[in-house]
């Protein structure tokens, strides 16, 4: 399809096609009015010539209407035909002084539309030619014809210049428009790139809550790959509060006057798995809707993020702080109360030194307990912050002897045997020294603490490429129901024999954390009244061949 000059647009072409079809009708009516003497003109030469002209004109008019211009040649042939037909009409039928001179203006515009400035210049030149022919033909019949024709030329030229300027300004507007359109699409591309690269899910809905735009992260969050477009936000994102009551996000959106952030809502997958979402939403107010100065807006935007992990960590930390402060308060209160009692007792003459000693001992025990709890807490915090994450080669046999040396005396004071049971071949493990030592010490101190008679055995065995670390005792044992709970923080068995000993309930909790840190898990085998075995395995470091 021929694309035409700079102002060529399909709508303008359509206007000219209709004008081309209508022009023979108008001019035929005008011609008939001349024939019947309703309009006076000296130009009409021959009635047959008039009908022949009108026939051809109508034929061209219909033809150009039915068959759109395909090539440059097509367009130029049709334009030339129109120029010739109108020229002949003006010279032989209506005269140049008739109002139909305006039809030349249409011709000039059509020429500019199809062939830009060159087309317009050609049309003007042809008009000058028509005027020349008209003057030559009619100057003997009508002496004033030259004046009329020159005035016609000036009027048409003037109108042409004005029309050309209007077109040109339109052209500039069109260029500006194209430029701003290009900029707009660039901006749109930029924004959509940013939105699509965001890790948060971004969804926008219309006023009815129907999803219109969403980014790739939305599909990831909802674990789907089907299109969300056209679905209702409540259907795609059914939410529930912490009490499992369902929450309509659309109702929340409608109620939102400004940006709102909530992190107390859950989303459930089809398989029942729930995630905690942090949702930020707000009505979308575009510059258009703002300009209306009303409360209206264009829809809603929803940004959602999975905060399940962060929330559970946060809740765990909050709970830990509250339980720890509670656990610390008990010995503190006892110690403080006992010491203030001692102050009062010292003023009293009846109080014997033995009574004072007993009270001071009680306070001392509580302070020692506090110290051990603070010690446990700092070990825990060290492990959680990963300050001792660096690993090193540890000779398993050496480690066993070191532990035996350290705890032998403590076991002896309780008349317990601390045995070593090591396989002949024991290699090297590559872990954090602090973590493995702390972990085994916790198991050993418990074993000694909860064994009244018999023995505690350190059993380190190498099986294939793994070393099994175990601490076995012949102590009070742990009931099946307690075995499920002993790794929880601050948990201590209700067994009276446990209650006879002091303890923070943090030892095994820390041990489990440390085991996790070094990539293993503690296994418990225990029988009430018969003893317990706590163990874990680590891979042996492969010997490097030189
Ligand atoms: P604590 O020893 O300070 O009470 P732990 O977290 O080390 O805290 O242990 C939790 C509980 O597990 C203990 O209170 C005790 O009831 C039980 N337990 C741990 N180790 C043994 C063991 N070797 N024998 C019997 N019971 C044990």
Brief write-up:
By secondary structure, this protein is α+β, with helices and mostly antiparallel strands.
Question: Explain this structure to me?
Answer:
The protein contains 16 helices and 14 strands. The chain has 546 residues and is an alpha+beta fold. The protein is rod-shaped and about 155 Å long. 57% of the residues lie in helices and 16% in strands. Helix 1 (10-35) crosses helix 4 (102-138), helix 3 (72-94) crosses helix 4 and helix 11 runs parallel beside helix 16. The strands form three sheets. Strands 2-1-7-6-5-3-4 form a seven-stranded antiparallel beta sheet, sandwiched between helices. It has helices at 10-35, 47-66, 72-94, 102-138, 145-197, 216-222, 233-236, 249-255, 287-291, 308-347, 353-385, 396-413, 433-449, 480-483, 496-499, 507-517; strands spanning 201-205, 211-214, 239-240, 246-247, 260-268, 274-284, 299-306, 392-395, 417-422, 428-431, 455-463, 466-473, 523-527, 531-539. The model has no long low-confidence stretch (mean pLDDT 86). The chain folds into four domains: 10-177, no CATH class; 201-306, Beta-Lactamase; 313-385, Helix Hairpins; 391-539, Histidine kinase-like ATPase, C-terminal domain (Heat Shock Protein 90), CATH 3.30.565.10.
